[in-house]
Amino acid sequence: MKLISRNTPTVFLTGGAGFVGRALVQRLLAEGYHVTALARRTKLPAHLEQAGVSLISGDVRDDACLAAAVAEADYVIHAAATFGGSWEDFYATNVHSTQVLLEESRKHKVKRFVFISSASVYPHANMNSKPVFTEDMPYEDDAHAAFYAKSKIAAEKLVWRYVKEHALPCVIFRPGAIYGPGSSLFPATTGLGLGEEKTILIGNSRTKLPLSYVENVADAVVRSLQMENAVGECFNLTEDETLTRKEWIKFLRARINPNVSVIAVPRWVMSFAKFTLKQLFKPGGKKPPLSDLHLKLYCTSINYSNDKFKRVFGAQPYVSFQESLERTAKWQREKRMPKRSHGLVAGNVVIPSEKKLRVGIIGCGNISAVHVDIIKGIKNAGEILLADPKETALNDTATRFGIAKKFLDYREMIEKEKPDVVHILTPPQFHAPVARFAMQKGCHVLVEKPMAVDAAQAREMMSVAKEHGVKLGVVHNHLYDGVMLEARAIVARGLLGNISFVESWYGTQFGSVLPFDPKNYWGMNLPGSVYQDFMPHALYVLTDFMPKSHVKEIAMSNSGNIAGLEHDELKVFLQNEQCVGMISLSLSTSPRYQYVNVFGTKGSMKIDFLNKAVLLDQEIGPLPRMLNRSLNGFKSGKAMRRAAWRNLFAMFKNQRYLFEGTERLIGLFYRSILLNETEPVSAAEGLESMKLMDDMWAKMKAPEEFPVMERKSA
Fold this sequence. Notes:
Elements: E1 10-14, H1 19-30, E2 34-39, H2 46-50, E3 54-57, H3 63-71, E4 75-78, H4 87-107, E5 112-116, E6 132-133, H5 147-166, E7 170-175, E8 177-179, E9 192-193, E10 198-202, E11 211-213, H6 214-224, E12 233-237, H7 245-255, E13 261-265, H8 267-281, H9 292-299, E14 303-304, H10 307-313, H11 321-335, E15 344-345, E16 348-349, E17 357-362, H12 366-376, E18 381-387, H13 391-401, E19 406-407, H14 410-417, E20 421-424, H15 431-440, E21 444-448, H16 455-468, E22 472-475, H17 482-492, E23 499-507, H18 531-543, E24 550-557, E25 569-575, E26 580-586, E27 594-600, E28 603-608, E29 613-618, H19 625-653, H20 660-675, H21 683-700
Parallel strand pairs: 1-2, 1-4, 2-3, 4-5, 5-7, 6-14, 7-12, 8-11, 10-13, 17-18, 17-20, 18-19, 20-21, 21-22, 23-26
Antiparallel strand pairs: 9-10, 15-16, 23-27, 24-25, 25-26, 27-28, 28-29
Helix pairs in contact: 1-6, 3-4, 4-5, 12-20, 15-16, 16-21
């Protein structure tokens, strides 16, 4: 934590975690202020903590919280606001909080009170076809003002009262449609939003947007803290240059996302639609999303004059218009870049190298056939070597794939043939010693799940890899299934909002008879017994959406379906700083399922690994919930039908389709070796999974919780 000097001025900022608030924090820090931010979160990002930002976790509706914060501040910036809800919600958040902050600022004689208002306060209802609004114009009348505008007008009147009656040094800013890093794709008045990437353009698309760049807004606010000639004044904050709505859509498609969807609707059609929408919203007691005022705002080029601002603050913007577009596009593109997408083009692994790797396979069990088949299809894979102490398995695999060099001892294979990379496909009890030997001989290692028996072994494997400068990767193959690539893209595009809950279900149906001898099966001797063989698949797809999790509770049950186990159902509850999650691992449930449900504040999705489908549910902005549910049902049904036909044809065409994630992961691991890049699933990720599983088994007091029961006769 950065130490704060007693001479460092302190700014109390409301809405510090919001779009404008984040830009204000960065600008205030750059100017040497200490920032105390009020936000409805419990922890700041690490870079802000390091910079010395103090967080007050609370709400602007908490009078005591506001009073305590203002008492320690030299300056107050009120940026918090609500944009939805009842009038009571708007009043409490946007009006009452302003009154409390003004009074506390008066009591404690703050040096400046800055209120971020909105251009929505102007009289738009009666504007002409080319309106120009200046700061001396009257407010919108109550009959036409929406709740948001009405609340901002009421708050502004409070500010003016404190300026007049108490000589409180206040400044008001009225930005237009704010855009920039951290914003949505569509600034206000672009159109009627239909989600994150769709909008309805109403009427003439050549009308101009009243744009305000977020960093320029932050710059003006911070500069006003030291400008005496700004006190007692109100300023419009808009850019000199702007774009039409049509030009903005063109900018989005060219620089950010070519798939931005736009529906152009004539104004007369939307005017007619007002009546229909009013009838649709009447049963739910909601206001329809369209009114005459909305249509005017969407269809009119509005100029909020910034002449007064330029006279006082200067004509040169902090960030030029073209640079603001560049920064916006760059942030939006980076935001939409899903994690784990490096090295993939349209889902295919790209390896820009002609070098070939000699590959050793250690362990010729069932999964070895999948690995060998995939390796034979990779252009950068050279000679394949086999090792397994079981001669029958070794010979069967060698014969099936036409592999000449085979060894009963993996050490002999490594010593004699010196492969570049080895795949360790043995039971987990052998992963650590085999990997240690291979890495000490200079081999890169790709190890099947689970990475090791426990976290101690995984940590040792990481240490050896680092010591000998070799790659160590883990086969968490479902992370690279097509559905996971699609799901991560959905998250990156912001379609789910903030993730609140993740559920991972993994089922392996044994029926009534175990497919192995409980007394001889290696899985029964793991710390987590048979569960440890399957848990990684359920775990790593969950932690991909909620990293840095820890185990909270576990629960077990017995369906009575499997005679060889005391428990056949395991539930694990996890939590991180943002959300909670649950894993269900079933050995008996029929039919078999493997899916992840991800629930967010803007949408939710189901990732169906077996049917290879992603089902995304979202509410389409203004539509009633009943209609939204029906539309989501139709959309999900269509997606499942398409997936069923696709899977049916693919099954006959390409068996590797079932192991597409493994194919991508192996290809990316080879790429990481050839180009010296990070492994697709690193040893550090494998270690995190092992640590979580260690916690699970400790809570179950394994292996005593899993006694092998005598099989009863029928």
